Every structure is written in C-alpha cells, then in structure tokens.
C-alpha cells in the first residue's frame, strides 16, 4: 500500500482476503477444538495491527484532500481513530485481565456499561460494527484510486452504507474506554478502602 501504490487493487484484494480469513479462523479453531491463549493473543495483535496499519496508510493517502479544507481533517481523523482503537482495546484487555477474565466474557463485563455488554454478548451487533468499520476503511482506500472507473460509484455507496457501523463502533470504543477505566479505578478504590 505504501511502497507500490500503483498495485492498489492487489493490495485491496490481499487485505480483504486477510480480513475474510480472520472472520473464519476463530470459528474454525473453536470447531476443531484448536483454541489457545497464544492464538487469542496473536489474533488480537494481527487484528489491531492490520487495522492500525490501514488507518496509517489512509492518513497519508488522504493528506492532499486536506489542502482543500486548509486543515488536516482527514489526517487528524485517521490518527484519532488509531489512538482510540489502541486506547479502548488496551484498556478493555487490562481491565478484564486484572479480574482474570476474558475481555469478551459476561463475567468480565458484568457491571459495565450496557452498550459494552451488548457489544460483546450480541454476535450480530459485534459483527455488524466490526465488519462495517473494516469495510469502510477498505472502501476508503480503494475509492481514492477509482476516479472515472465504473466501480467508483459502488465504492461510494459502500462508504455510505458502512458509515453507520463505523460510527457506532467508534462510539462503542469511547464507551468501552471509559467503562474500562472506571472499572480499574473502582477496583483501586475498593482496595484502598480495605
């Protein structure tokens, strides 16, 4: 994506293949009873790193459009999304790890914000937000290369259709961040009282 931007179509296909593979590898591992703590760690790392890498690429690719605004709107947006993604996921993992629980588990999220509980309990809601977000990022990447091509309007429609899922995912990330921080602070307060 960075070194050979003229191969944007291949880069898009490879990213999509990786994304689709990620959707099914966990299901397959559970079905074949091949899950492990290490696999969970690697899965989360590759999810976060691939998304953050794509957001980094977008922050550079959309920099010329920022000149029209006279302010780095796109670049700042993508960089804020990177920071929010890291902060919310790290805080969620830390806050549930100190409880000795899985970050998606009902026991770990008991007492958390109802939206965070819904996000981790309802696989359809979880999937819609995650898939919507990734599809928006992928479509935003491909969109910039398709001006004048027949697929440009399809990508534009994809951006609009996936935007609600992406916006909701960012809202969940903010709520998850505050909920996790509150949980850790609450645990600290209880320890101090003892």
UniProtKB/TrEMBL annotation:
Chief location bin: membrane
One Pfam short name: CDP-OH_P_transf
Superkingdom of origin: Eukaryota
An example Gene Ontology CC term for this record: membrane
GO biological process, one term: phosphatidylinositol biosynthetic process
Family label: Belongs to the CDP-alcohol phosphatidyltransferase class-I family.
Top EC class for this record: transferase
Location of the protein in the cell: Membrane
Catalytic activity: a CDP-1,2-diacyl-sn-glycerol + myo-inositol = a 1,2-diacyl-sn-glycero-3-phospho-(1D-myo-inositol) + CMP + H(+)
Protein name, per record: CDP-diacylglycerol--inositol 3-phosphatidyltransferase
GO molecular function, one term: metal ion binding
UniProt keyword annotations, A-Z: Lipid biosynthesis, Lipid metabolism, Magnesium, Membrane, Metal-binding, Phospholipid biosynthesis, Phospholipid metabolism, Transferase, Transmembrane, Transmembrane helix
